[in-house]
Amino acid sequence: MSEFDGADGGDAPVLFGGPESEPADAGALPAAVSMGAPLAVRMRPTTLAEVLGQDHLLGQGAPLRRLVEGSGASSVILYGPPGTGKTTLASLISSATGRHFESLSALSAGVKEVRAIIDLARKRMVLGGQTVLFIDEVHRFSKTQQDALLSAVENRIVLLVAATTENPSFSVVSPLLSRSLVLQLQPLSPSDIRELVRRALADERGLGGALTLAEDAEEHLLQIAGGDARRALTALEAVSETALSANPGASSAAPGLVDLSMVEASVNKAAVRYDRDGDQHYDVASAFIKSIRGSDVDAAMHYLARMLTAGEDPRFVARRLVISASEDIGMADPTSLPIAVAAAQAVQLIGMPEAQLTLSQATIHLASAAKSGSVTAALGAAMGDIAAGKAGMVPPHLRDGHYSGAKGLGNAIGYKYPHDHPDGVLAQQYAPDELVGVDYYKPTTRGAERDLEVRVSRLRKIIRGISRTR
User: Fold this and answer.
1) What is the pTM of this model?
2) Count of domains for the chain
3) Which residue in 246, 301, 409, 454 has the most C-beta neighbors within 10 A?
4) 420's torsion region: left (phi>0), alpha (psi -120 to 50) or beta?
């Protein structure tokens, strides 16, 4: 979807020498856009047919499609990363319904501005007019500012289209959530970005066929974009300025060729040899995990940076960290798993690029933590016995006794309640007869397991005081 949300992209890393040149009021789509406007503004879709991506929300009969086609009446909160279509969709909704389009940015607007627009919308409503109010970065509104919208949204004085890059469940007040549809937008796919770039190269609103991209140059632009339409076109514009300066006579009749070196020089970001669907994907991910397992913090950071630079899905990285926390560290540092899980949740909550820092912190913690494979070994040994048929009957005193007739079967009779004992642990058989005395968990002497090894050994001696030995 060739869309470039107003202020959402402001926190993205600068891809080349200076800040983006998009004007502060770029949230609205004017009827005619000056050719002097940024390429990202010129190439915004003006019809639903030009929209790329978000098929899950724009299918026939889907709520967002009904709104864009003018047949929906619900206010919506569009939740997704920068450059996925939030501003464009708001404007298309306004165009389709024939409503007046008002735009506010939570970065600069306060309660006063919100109430002023609502007053205008109320007067317009008396005259038969309707208003679409687009609020960019609504998560930056305070509770008071969000509360100021409630009555107007509930009474449909305005059709609210709010955009946020943060999970609205945490950043938008419950009353506003309950009055709106929450629709999650996804990053654009590489094929969507490819079509967008090619459209910008050929379209008269864009570069009018004056340039063509070499295949590796195009692939590098797709990596740079990371699913963000605005980022892709901002980078393409920088490349085009360099290419056209070097070849001022380029035109649709004699287009100039842009190669990989020109793209790298223009956006100051070297190509990373990394195929997300090929061997490099698995090789780099494997090296990342093995570096963590081997406690090489620096190598782990290298492979993390390599994946992130190449546009790897941060959720994939987060999942690998969660697995590693149990597989390679386990009880040697029990804090590693909650830290990895928190990192995975943070990736979902804040998205990129800020989530890079969270993944970096988790990687450093896991790589520098004491290591133990005892969790993996314990589960493997236990499953091995199960596979070998060693799954005896549950001892009678441990069976469920909460049903009529249980005692008649001998269930739950003689069970000793550990909390009744001063130490909270006592002698009692827990394992099936065939497995009494089997040690699956074997703590190491590293990290927190150093103390745990002593404790587990002591517990086993107490518990097995009356158990039969194998």
Assistant:
1) 0.54
2) 4
3) 301
4) alpha
